[in-house]
Design a protein that fits this description.
It contains nine helices and seven strands. By secondary structure, it is of the alpha+beta class. Strands 3, 4, 5, 6 and 7 form a five-stranded antiparallel beta sheet that branches. Strands 1-2 form a two-stranded antiparallel sheet.
């Protein structure tokens, strides 16, 4: 819907990825008819709402006045840089849960993470209750140890690697399987449609940064995926479809050990390949 605030600048027609907006003879934007949402129709991206300088465009019941304001680059860059340089894998957590309201808010905002064709196919398996997480952890851990006693280890982890991780429970991580995290989030998407691999990894990365900006620790884990593949019944408790791509399990919660400052790591010059033609 376009209100009387429209000045006919045409910006909305130039950013519409589906190409369904056009300027009419009345110098106002109009929408072409389409049969389905997606590649050959509206992408549900809301670019038209976001780009309008006059706040004249509403779509899907969303009003421009309810949208967050664009950040000021002069201040936003410093904040984002600080979040990136201060994020790190957290392997020790406090014995308290994160509020379900905060978790829900962050997960909902993942609709804004880039994904192929804005198909929004990523789904999220979430354990937001710390007691439920302890229950699941206990079941999986007990079965992992039972298999190890039989000489059965996760793919890529032989006996030596497994025992090394066991030793680390005395120092770095109290729980070699899920790092003691009180919550987990697992982004996953159907294979054979869109860009499931990229979409899942990007969604996980965005979630990690949102957690870091809110004082939460995170750890992206692949070891438990390998462990759970050895125990299909327990993996089935996560109710993730077999035809979905799963790239990581993200553990998160309040960190037990706060860090005083960010790192000073940088990409070495030899890893930067500048092209000229």
């Amino acid at each position: 819907m376009v209100s009387d605030k429209c000045v006919g600048c045409g910006k909305c027609t130039k950013v519409c990825p589906g190409g369904i907006l056009f300027m009419g003879e009345d110098k106002r934007p109009h929408m072409k008819a389409f049969e389905e949402f997606g590649w050959n129709g509206c992408w549900r991206c809301e670019h038209c709402l976001a780009v309008c300088p006059e706040g004249a465009v509403s779509i899907f019941g969303h009003r421009p006045e309810d949208s967050p304001a664009a950040p000021d680059p002069d201040t936003a860059a410093e904040v984002v840089d600080a979040v990136v340089t201060n994020r790190r894998s957290c392997r020790r957590y406090q014995k308290r849960g994160v509020s379900k309201e905060l978790i829900h808010d962050m997960v909902c905002k993942l609709a804004n993470a880039p994904n192929g064709g804005n198909k929004q196919q990523v789904e999220y398996t979430l354990i937001d209750d710390a007691k439920q997480m302890d229950h699941f952890r206990g079941i999986a851990y007990k079965e992992m140890e039972r298999l190890a006693e039989q000489g059965i280890y996760p793919e890529g982890f032989g006996k030596d690697a497994y025992e090394d991780m066991k030793q680390w429970e005395k120092t770095v991580r109290p729980d070699m399987l899920f790092c003691g995290a009180p919550h987990i989030l697992i982004p996953h998407a159907p294979l054979g449609k869109g860009e499931p691999v990229q979409d899942v990894i990007i969604a996980g990365t965005y979630f990690e940064l949102m957690c870091a900006s809110r004082g939460l620790g995170t750890v992206m884990m692949t070891f438990p995926l390998s462990v759970l593949n050895l125990m299909p019944k327990i993996r089935g408790m996560l109710e993730i479809p077999e035809d979905h791509y799963v790239g990581m399990i993200i553990g998160f919660g309040y960190p037990q050990i706060p860090y005083a400052r960010g790192t000073q790591r940088k990409v070495e010059p030899e890893r930067i390949h500048r092209l000229s033609f």
